[in-house]
Amino acid sequence: MSSSQSITDHYCRQKLPYVQLLSDEQLELLENNSNVVSYQKKDNVFRQDTRTSHIMLMISGLVKINKEGRNGRCVLLRIAKPGDYIGMLSVMGDHIHQYSATAVEPSEICFIDINAFRNVLMANGKFSLQLMSLISQDGLFIFNRLITQTHKQLPGRIADVLLYFAEDIYGQTHYDFPLTRRELAELAGTTKESFIRTLTEYKNDKIIALDGSHVEIISMDIVKTLSELG
Predict the structure, then answer these.
(1) pLDDT per residue over 44-84, tens digit each?
(2) How sure is the predictor about 7, in pLDDT bands with cuts at 50, 70 and 90?
(3) Are 160 and 202 in contact (CB under 8 A)?
(4) Virtual CA dihedral for 172, 174, 177, 182, nearest 10 degrees?
(5) Does pTM top 0.90 for this prediction?
(6) Which of 55, 71, 170, 181 has the most CB atoms less than 10 A away?
């Protein structure tokens, strides 16, 4: 179950991208129109096809972003980490969420009133330009992942998943997968069985060490080569 609390001690300010571009008055406006909501693992943050209402900024934890298709099939688009906006593509481009967001570990999210946020954007061109850059980066990341799933062979897609968590999410070569094997397969664009089989092959070849959900990349060079060769 989620829970909400008021903003105190500039809680959202700590994670707000490009906060240095905002005036004290603009920061105060955002903080006075914000609240932090806490989520437990598996809690829905928002669901696909529901109306947008707030700007959402990750404060702590991890949230998965997935697109639901026909026959209950899902494509896991990305993992949002602290400092990331979630739902921004939908909030700025439509009135309906085009994908769903679910906490994969206990998470805190700052909800900012969309009208207050838009007032700041209209008054601050430099901040608006940086936000446009972030939105473009999100779109390009999702675009590139979908292209990767279409054109890369399975070993390359599994290598991409390993690199994604090592470089983009955790910043280190050893970590615990925050997702189930099925969710990891969705991220790689394959089946659960194929993902497990390929991961086991990497373990047997001493490319990675694997113990339950804990993985350590032993040979980053090989993983990067597999990713590049596709």
Answers:
(1) 999 988 888 888 999 999 999 988 877 767 788 899 999 99
(2) very low
(3) no
(4) 110
(5) no
(6) 55
**Cα dihedral 112, 116, 118, 119 in deg (nearest 10):** -150
Strands 208-211 and 214-217: antiparallel
The class of domain 152-229 in CATH terms is mainly alpha
Does the domain at 3-145 match CATH 3.90.1150.10? Answer given as no
